[in-house]
Amino acid sequence: MLELFLAELKRSWIEFTRYPVDAVAGVFIITSVFYGLFLSARYIAGPNLQFGDRLDAIVVGYVLWTLVIFVVTSIVSILQIEAQTGTLEQVMLTPYGVSRVFLARAIASLTINIVLITGILLLILLLTGRRLYFPLTLIFPLLTVLFGAYGLAFLMASLALLFKRIQQLLGLTQFALLFLLTIPSETWSGTLSIVRFLLPMTMGAGILRDLMARNLSLNFVEISLAFLNGLGYLFLGLIVFRRAEVEAKRRGILGGY
Question: Which of 80, 117, 135, 151 is the most exposed place for a label (fewest CB within 10 A)?
Fold first, then answer.
């Protein structure tokens, strides 16, 4: 598996170095969108607007949303490109298995995209004048978010494997993810706290806001539930993708587009 990851990392790095303008343009656009919304809110509310730690929480949610979009779209885009170029069947025949190949390719791509996401975060903090906390414990809720993101990515890839073109559905999913990752679910109580546990990535995002925006300590019970949620969605995505792979082979539509 390590050999596969290193090969995919080399492949992703070659693609990144050959098309750097696209990556730089993405960073500029994503940062500009957030800064434009920030300036609009300040203009509407007037000079006496006080955000408090709410803006910090929004920054964390927005950057998380950008990261999750990278993860979800990467696997779907990889699968669709393989189908368009006619190499999907070759990937299916690899000894590693198609799920491992796509997962290794997505993680390799994420390794490079983390640098871009970090650049986006630093630019937003510089433009807005805000400051976030970066405790070492933030790696745990970040992992839970990534687990859930990869699970959702494989669910979407299952649809792409069977129906080939799902761009409109993918666009709608991005808006739903913006809601899940920016809404302050950590303030929910009662029945809503149960809903929070069932929704993908919501708990991990809330814990990250507590750590980075409010400088709170890590709650062992909440992080344990967040890990259960993330791993549950990851295994669900892998199982559904495996079933979709079997169904696509049965229909003989792997090489079609």
Answer: 135
Q: How far apart are CA 179 and CA 202, in angstroms?
A: 10
Tokens of 70: 């990278």
Residue with tokens 């500009």: 32
Tell me the residue type at 86.
Answer: G
Eight-state DSSP code of residue 164:
S
What are the extents of the domains in the chain?
Answer: 2-251
Local confidence band at 104 (pLDDT 50, 70, 90 cut-offs): confident
Q: Which amino acid is at 176?
A: A
**How far is Cα 66 from Cα 149, in angstroms, rounded to an integer?**
11
Are the C-beta atoms of residues 201 and 181 closer than 8 Å to each other? yes
Percent of the chain topping pLDDT 70:
87
pTM of the predicted model as reported, rounded to 2 decimal places? 0.84
CA-nearest of 147, 165, 140, 15 to 76 is 165
Mean local confidence (pLDDT), 191-195: 77
Per-residue pLDDT, averaged over 237-246, amounts to 87
**Helix 98-128 crosses helix 139-163 at what angle (to 10 degrees)?**
130
18 is written with which tokens?
Answer: 């050959």
Determine the straight-line distance between the first and last CA of the chain, rounded to whole angstroms: 29
Separation of alpha carbons 32 and 120, rounded Å: 10
4: enclosing H helix or E strand? helix 2-18
57 CB-near residues (< 8 Å, 6+ apart): 184, 209, 213, 214
Q: Does 227 or 54 have the greater pLDDT score?
A: 227
Give the C-alpha distances (Å, rounded to integers) separating 38 from 6, 26, 31, 32. Answer: 40, 19, 11, 10
